[in-house]
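so my prof wants the structure for this chain in the tokens format not the other one, which i didnt know existed until like an hour ago. anyway here's the sequence
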Amino acid sequence: MTERSRIFVWTLYDFANTSFSIVVVTFLYAVYFKETVAGGEAIGDFYWSLSTSVSMVIVALVAPTLGAVADYSSSKKKFLLFFTALCLVAAGSLYFVGPGEVALGMGLFIVANVGFEAALVFYDAFLPEITEPRKFGRVSGYGFAFGYFGALASLGLAFPFIQAEMVRETFPVSALFFLVFSAPLFLKLKERRVERGSDVNYVAVGARRVLSTIRNLKEYKNLAVFLAAYFFYIEGVNTVIFFAGIYASGTLGFEMLELIYFFVVVQTTAIVGAAVLGVVADAIGQRRTIMFTLVMWLATVALAFFVEDKTQFYFVGLLAGAAMGSSQSTSRALMSLLTPDEKKTEFFGFYSFFGKSSAILGPLAFGAISYATGSQRIAILSIAFFFVVGMAILRFVKDPSHKPFANLYRRG
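here's what i got, hopefully its the right format
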């Protein structure tokens, strides 16, 4: 395959999987769970935050070892297929969750989200195999931008079901969308292979490699600092993603169709943010670009706290979309630049570990504060803390894509 074909097939998976992210995690199922499954009670926020946190704990615990196994056995695509299938089956099964079935609704969501998040470990690790380092920023941005197009397409597909008050039917529809558009990656994209003996215990090898990396983390100081910064600022991003729909409906009174219009606005600016700032990041450096997006996030949180009506909240959505697309895509690009070639998937496992374990505290804090105070406005202020701490740590990361550090050894 040509480089252009590899990039297109890879970005199709982003196009496909965002249907789960927008329909289940951020929008329709999140609101359905709070309003219908949990009966609109305030504790629904806590149940939702607990579900997201449990799923992230599971992914955080297994991701580094799975990444090391995938590196050693050259089996990224097999792991990607398994976790994608896990997500699809559980997401489609959300159709069977009815009013009051909180345990079932939480359980199926946890399984689906584990599949979705674990699959991203192996998907992200393909980035260094499909293009060269000087293009990581823009190609990662293309992936996220294409993903947000997928979100728009998913919302368009869900729209007639929502109009007909058939919200539950959107869950298997989104799973089908994910299946169809992710298939080309599994059929066409090849990974670099390293032959190993047939009697190798891959799990034991994976565990040993992870322990070795942890013991020798001082050799990867720059990467460790970045992961520490990433842990905090992605906490804020994840919390916004998990609670955006619930906040819009619970605090500002958005109806379901109004939420669709709002998320169309968010996804549109996310496309622009991911694509444009991906190119900018390759020009001025990934770290500088991430810092800029974190300033955007702080402005988003402040505006969300103060807005009083729905029209004003659309402007919050414009800013949040641009910040979301660029912060996620640029982080993936910087991670690709900082990791050694022989441990790409293992380190993306650590990337997932820091990203998913960080997504435990933020949602729990939001849910607990919202439940204790009865105010989502107060809860949303807690998110700013994570962006500020992330920015403070990120200042110490040396960016190989920025001229003064261009010749630094990746592990420095």
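also thought this was worth mentioning. The domain at 3-188+201-405 is CATH 1.20.1250.20 (Growth Hormone; Chain: A;).
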